[in-house]
Specification:
alpha+beta, 20% helix, globular
């Protein structure tokens, strides 16, 4: 029996925020796990993914994800969600401003520029994010990616499986000091995607 639920919750949240839920669930059915990131989260005696899998999947389902939702028309909403999925056309957002008359809003992906997964809603107003790949970046998965949007914004990060014929793709933050953890970019609002040399 897995004896450290706090560590399981922390691991679940870490994998979720990095967008690696599918990878972890695959690991949980493996006899051995050779993922170095997985090893960094658990001591050797607690690394059997078969024992961890169920508890962490339960933890994943219980986590609220902090989201900043940006629409193609410039509108911005902040809130949390437990049911966002790249395989669904919509999801429910509980607004961070609980004083709203309608705290639960249905969001349709077709209307969006992207969904930003953030550390918190306060952010770092005076912090200037690194633009470009001018300093070493840390990533466990993905390759360098530059994304151009219809509104002129350009974002830098890492992506794993970009496909222009899909609804969108995840872009993981290049700047570790950024308040943004990752972005689900909607392909219909993207004009160009570049993959610079490693």
């Amino acid at each position: 029996m897995y004896g450290n639920p706090t560590r399981a919750n922390r691991a679940a949240k870490t994998y979720l925020l990095l967008g690696l839920t599918e990878q972890f669930c695959r690991l949980s059915f493996s006899k051995e796990c050779h993922d170095p990131f997985f090893h960094s989260l658990f001591p050797k005696e607690e690394r059997d993914p078969r024992l961890l899998g169920e508890k962490i999947r339960v933890s994943l389902m219980a986590l609220d994800q902090n989201l900043v939702v940006r629409f193609q028309n410039g509108r911005v909403l902040k809130g949390t969600s437990k049911d966002f999925s790249t395989n669904r056309d919509s999801f429910n957002l509980t607004l961070a401003n609980r004083s709203s008359a309608n705290p639960l809003v249905k969001i349709f992906l077709r209307d969006l520029k992207g969904i930003f997964f953030v550390k918190d809603f306060v952010g770092k107003k005076e912090y200037q994010e690194d633009k470009g790949f001018s300093k070493p970046g840390k990533t466990f998965y993905g390759k360098k990616t530059i994304v151009h949007f219809k509104d002129g914004e350009i974002l830098y990060g890492f992506t794993q499986n970009y496909a222009p014929d899909r609804r969108g793709f995840f872009l993981y933050s290049y700047d570790s000091q950024s308040n943004n953890l990752k972005l689900f970019a909607i392909n219909s609002f993207v004009t160009k995607v570049e993959f610079p040399p490693l």
